[in-house]
């Protein structure tokens, strides 16, 4: 790919020539020179300044859209040549939330690694916003998240439905029934995730539909991970809201039990996310493999 295009993509991503120079390991004047040559070549100004702020012109936005697609086409070309040579090799860098990376992705990895053992996989944990940032700066190739954002530069694709359920230890005397009225939630003690958790936001919206405010819950403990919440539940009479995928083993073993809320379900989707445009061959192979894996 033309190096000027690569420089332009980096400069457009950061809207800062110095940061682009650092990413590409060249000098800032070299960035300016490449951008100037590209502007002469296209006959258009690609950037404009307002004080210290740099932004893309309309022509710059158009070029960026095509340049990003061109970048992915070159990536696909290199990957296709490797497949043609029979190596079936490469690497995919995934970004995923804690729930997905702990309870969903391992199910996919076992089968994927068996089918394509020469493809290495790296996983970073983060929330939806972090994953979007990693996609934009190319830290990762593909994201797997628990919810949508309003970022129009990203393409989301639902691949798996999840249910968040009320859960407690088996034998908890606080609730004997398997189904309770939502109003009884106010009488229970809870252990929940920290603020900012995507799961909490979904629970909050569901509670509103039930006529219950978040502050009506008697939250005794706040913990940073689903695993720590499960450990706490097993030793107390507290309750929590967790993904059915996260508690499948404990429910099967009879350690935890699900309490249904009369007339209500808390559903959500898991999504693949990547920048708008063409996705690389290896990330797309993983995406399609995962979709098939859960459509069985």
Could you walk me through the main structural features you see in this protein, from its secondary elements to its overall organization?
The protein is an alpha/beta fold and 296 residues long. The chain folds into three domains: 3-81, Winged helix-like DNA-binding domain superfamily/Winged helix DNA-binding domain (Arc Repressor Mutant, subunit A); 89-160 and 269-293, Periplasmic binding protein-like II (D-Maltodextrin-Binding Protein, domain 2, 3-Layer(aba) Sandwich); 161-268, D-Maltodextrin-Binding Protein, domain 2. It has ten helices and twelve strands. The protein has helices at residues 3-14, 17-24, 28-42, 58-84, 98-115, 128-136, 198-209, 226-234, 248-252, 281-293; strands at residues 47-50, 53-56, 90-96, 119-125, 142-145, 154-169, 179-180, 189-193, 218-223, 240-243, 256-261, 266-275. Helix 1 packs across helix 3. The mean pLDDT is 88.
The biggest sheet, with number of strands, parallel, antiparallel or mixed sense and barrel status, is: 8 strands, mixed
Structural class: alpha/beta
Show unreliable segments: none
**Percent helix:** 40-55%
Total tally of structural domains: 3
Count every helix, treating DSSP H or I runs of 4 or more residues as helices. Answer: 10
Distance from N terminus to C terminus (CA atoms, Å) equals 40 Å
Number of strands: 12
Short descriptors:
296 residues; Arc Repressor Mutant, subunit A; D-Maltodextrin-Binding Protein, domain 2; eight-stranded mixed β-sheet; two-stranded antiparallel sheet; 10 helices
